[in-house]
Structures are given as structure tokens and as C-alpha cells.
Amino acid sequence: MQINHNKRKIRLILLSFVMSLLLSGLKFLAYYLTDSNAILSDALESIINVFASGFALYSIRLSALPKDSNHPYGHGKVEFFSAGFEGALIIIASVVIAYGALTRLLNPQPLANLTLGSGLIFVTVILNSAVGLLLVREGKKYNSLALTADGKHLLSDSVSSILLLISVLLVLWTGLEWIDSVASLVFGLLIAYNGYQLTRKSVAGLMDESDPLLMQQVVEAIRAHKKNYWIDVHNLRVQQYGSDLHIDCHLTLPYFWELQKSHDTIREFEDVLKENHPGETEIFVHSDPCLPQCCYFCRLKGCHVRSHAFQHDIDWDVVNLAKNQKLFTEAQLKIKQDHD
Q1: How is 234-275 classified by DSSP, letter by letter?
Q2: Of 44, 50, 53, 46, residue with least CA distance to 82
Q3: Rounded distance, CA 269 to CA 283, Å?
Q4: CA of 147: how far to CAs of 2, 213, 232, 242, 326, in Å?
Q5: Number of alpha carbons in the 13 Å side-chain half-sphere of residue 278
Q6: Secondary structure class of 325 (helix, strand, coil)
Q7: pLDDT at residue 18, rounded to an integer
Q8: CA atoms of 112 and 180, how far apart (whole Å)
Q9: In this structure, are residues 63 and 82 in contact, taking their beta carbons and an 8 Å threshold?
Q10: Strand order of the sheet with strand 232-241?
Q11: Could you tell me the sign of the dihedral formed by the alpha carbons of 100, 101, 107, 111, in that order?
Q12: Any idea where the domains of the chain sit in the sequence?
């Protein structure tokens, strides 16, 4: 299944690469016909799409390689490099675009064939939007940052092109050619922000920053399949490596269980997490024995060593499951301290 996922991701990013080449050619043709600085800005940004899609293709192929002695967690983090590389290229392009816009604003040049050029740009908007939406949808499906980043880049390119078309229409309507340079400058600032967002997410992934959405998905999977003998889960940590996940946590089980039964329960717990993620999921679960204070929120029936009657459940949410301690209420903590 994982092999099929990787092949699907490679085909999608290859589609993006070919489409970027085609659209870049159309935009440069539109610039040749119009001599519009705004259209040139859009064309320059499309060159970034080509380089970014090419690097994303390389990163996805590399991330699909199996683990080895030098990369015990696999090669998935290269997708964060891909997103960071794309973000850096976008920021560089925004600087070039802004410089060109200011130069043209100080030295205006006549424009021509704006209607034909606008038609070509409109075609690129349709194609960019279709491919971008597909990449974002599939990127989220396969938890691939490289696909998602490339898709969002194409969508932001479409939005920028729409703003560009509006500026061209304003030039045609008013005859004020300086609008073209101002639109190019705004365009540069817009893609600079998009580049910053991509770079920020790349650095966060490389630094193993906690992803609240990813953590919430894992917690929801645990809650949806919760068993009475899963007494407590804590110290839950989730790390992403490309489209793969590494999860570790502590699972509290009845202390009197035999080793084989505890082992089978941990395997059941791991299977729940693996079934709720499309990529590979590596899981390390540390088994903790229950304490007398756990009886207050333990629903295990027929327990022959129960010290206290069940009182209420403790909410298994992102905050609680991430704590490096068993989940006790304040009153139960006082009892535990007195007992210790």
C-alpha cells in the first residue's frame, strides 16, 4: 500500500512539474506580447514553480527510500527541505519582482496587446487552480508536506494572476500605465508572504515542532477506539517524517496482567494508530502498571484488586495526553501524595 502511495505522489508532482513548464512558457509569451511588468512578474514567479516542482519530485522520490543504517527514521524529512527550498526561492523572486516594479515605476514604458496577453494569463489561472487543488487535496490525504506546499504555491500563483488580470483591466479602462508597476509591486509583497509561510513550516518540521492538527488527529483516533483496559495514556509525542509518522507514548495497563496479555494489548493499541494514518507509522509504547489511584477513573470490570470505586472519566484531549504523568485529578493527586 505504501509503495502505491509513493507512486501516486510521484505522478502528481511530475504533473505539477510538466504543468509549470507549460504555464511558464505561456506567461513569458504574454509578456513578450504586452511588455507588461506585472505579467513579467507573474512569469518570473512561474520559473520558481518549475524549480520548486523539480526539487519536490526529487524529495518525494528520496523520501520513498526505505530506512537504512544512516537514516534509522527513513528519509521523509527531506520533504521539509523541499518546502523550505521552495519558500526561499519565492522570497528571492519577490525581491526581483519588487525591484523591477520600482524601476518601471520610475521609468514608465508603453504597453501593448493587453487583451491577448490577459487571455493567455486567464488560461494559466484555470490550469494552475485545477492542479493546485488536486495537489493540496492529495497532499493532505497522504500527509505529504511537499505535495501540499507545491499545491498551495500553485493556488497562490492563481490568486496573484487574478490580481494581475484586474490590474490589466484597470490599465485598459483608465489608460494609467503606472497601475501595472504598482500591481507588480503588490504582487511581489504577496508572494513574499507566501514564501515566508512555507519557510516557517519547513523550519518547524525540521525542528520537530509540535503540530497541533496532527496531534489532534492521533488523539481522536485513540479516543474513538478507547478500551476499558486502556486505563491511561500519557507522554504522547508525534513526529512527522515526510508522509510517515513516529509516535511514542506511555500506556497504563492492569499491573497484574501477564506479559503476553500486555504485549497483545499494546499491539492492538498500535494497530489502531496505524489504521488511522495512510503512510507508514512507527510506534513505541511504554507499558506502565496501574496504581491504586487509577481506580477512580478505571472502567475495567471484574477487577479483583480494585481499591476504589469508579468515579468519572478523565478527558483524553491533546493537553492531557501530552503530559508526562498519569492523569489524576487534584484530589486524587493529594491522595497519591499522602499514600507515597
Answers
A1: EEEEEEEETTEEEEEEEEEE-TTS-HHHHHHHHHHHHHHHHH
A2: 53
A3: 10
A4: 16, 17, 36, 10, 38
A5: 15
A6: coil
A7: 87
A8: 12
A9: no
A10: 232-241, 244-253, 281-289
A11: positive
A12: 2-206, 212-339
Residues 6 or more apart whose CB falls under 8 angstroms from that of 94 comprise: 188, 189, 191, 192, 195
Radius of gyration of the chain (CA): 27
Cβ neighbour number for residue 275 with a 10 Å cutoff: 11
- Hey, what CATH class is 2-206 in? mainly alpha
**Cβ–Cβ < 8 Å for 231, 254:** yes
- Over residues 251-291, the pLDDT tens digits come to 999 999 999 999 999 999 999 998 877 667 889 999 999 98
| Beta-carbon count within 10 A of 229 CB | 20
Task: For residue 64, give the 3-state DSSP assignment.
Answer: coil
Q: Burial level of 38, CB count in 10 A (0-12/13-18/19+)?
A: buried
What sign has the CA pseudo-torsion 129, 189, 106, 25? Answer: negative
Q: Does domain 212-339 have CATH number 3.30.70.1350?
A: yes
- Residue 284 sits at φ, ψ, to 5 deg, of -120, 115
If pLDDT is split at 50, 70 and 90, which confidence band does 331 have?
very low
- Cα separation, 15 vs 133, whole angstroms: 13
Q: Which residues contact 20 (CB under 8 A, 6 or more apart)?
A: 46, 49, 50, 52, 53, 154
Q: What's the pLDDT score for residue 330?
A: 45
Q: Is the dihedral of CA 68, 69, 72, 74 positive or negative?
A: negative
CB-based contacts of 6: which residues, under 8 Å, 6+ apart? 60, 63, 64
Q: 89: buried, middle or exposed (CB in 10 Å: 19+, 13-18, 0-12)?
A: buried
Closest CA to 9 of 167, 286, 172, 242: 242
Return the closest-CA partner of residue 94 out of 47, 27, 57, 126: 47
Cα–Cα distance, 22 to 267 (Å, whole number): 49
